[in-house]
């Protein structure tokens, strides 16, 4: 069994002091409200609102806009901000780009938001620690075809003290070079057909719920991090080259199906005190570890784990007094450092699975519950299986 990596005490917290990639400032020009486009002669378009203004009608950005300090723009309920391919740029990492209303749906579409402490938020973020957003909350923020880059937070929401929260709906958007592109503290996130790459913690869900579909999370330090009783559902999504693909803490749960995880330091990690994590019909290949659990409830069904330098699945003894259980069925562990290594005793049930061509153990799970139908062969250590009976496998 490999040594347990250094334990962390919780999900990473971005800070304004984090070094970011900074590009050249773009010139700030005007916004034009859609409702006012028809006013006046064609050659005399009305002056657009300035940085810090509140938009109360649908608005189109007609040129790049740079805000040297303070809030970029505030949206009133029901407003659509169409960036029209232009850039909304901040002047420091202690500013908020777009502040959305407590209630009422808003939409931001088709452009770039860059170099803000928080690109989009339901309260003014100025670098201070977490604070409750003014509320009560209840609106939905829609992002469609938006690029967010170079900042601390991409979309940042914080639940009101009464438990109400903002819903975030992201489609066909890209987040890069941001510490925490999607920081959802309470509330809900829907992420669809989007790309998150080269960030620190891509999706941080502290309570609330997230649904992630048909997206790509690439080269992030952490791709999906769930804690504080939050729950994430992942479908048809690719995790490529992230340090950790899906990680749970303090009651956080995840359900990952029909997805691919490739070249992670640890693909799926359950820390002590995690809730329930289900991994079904998933390919987990390359990198160091496939699945690592120190507690919680783990279900692994029809998962292919291969080409790991360490274990395909490793279950470390949970802290004293904490229960842990795992059920692994219909899965394969191939060409890794070890196949399955467990210190959970009867907390692990293993059946219908095959371990082949691993450098060390095929299965080493003393005291595990044998569900039958296991096979092993070509692994470096004998016996091929400890704790369960394995038929010979080529």
Task: Explain the overall architecture.
This protein has 394 residues and is an all-beta fold. The chain has two domains: 150 residues, no CATH class; 195 residues. It has no helices and 38 strands. Strands 12-14-17-20-23-21-18-15 form an eight-stranded parallel β-barrel. It is elongated. The N terminus is likely disordered. This is Right handed beta helix domain-containing protein. InterPro entries: PbH1, Pectin_lyas_fold, Pectin_lyase_fold/virulence.
Q: Give the domain tally.
A: 2
Report how far apart the termini are: 24 Å
**Structural class determined from secondary elements:** mainly beta
* Biggest beta sheet summary: 8 strands, parallel, barrel
The 3D shape can be described as elongated
Integer-rounded radius of gyration: 24 Å
Q: In brief, what are we looking at here?
A:
The chain has 394 residues and is mostly beta strands. It has no helices and 38 strands. Residues 1-9 and 16-47 have low confidence and may be disordered.
Question: Any key phrases for this structure?
Answer:
8-stranded parallel beta barrel; 51% strand; elongated; Pectin_lyase_fold/virulence; 394 residues; 38 strands; mainly beta
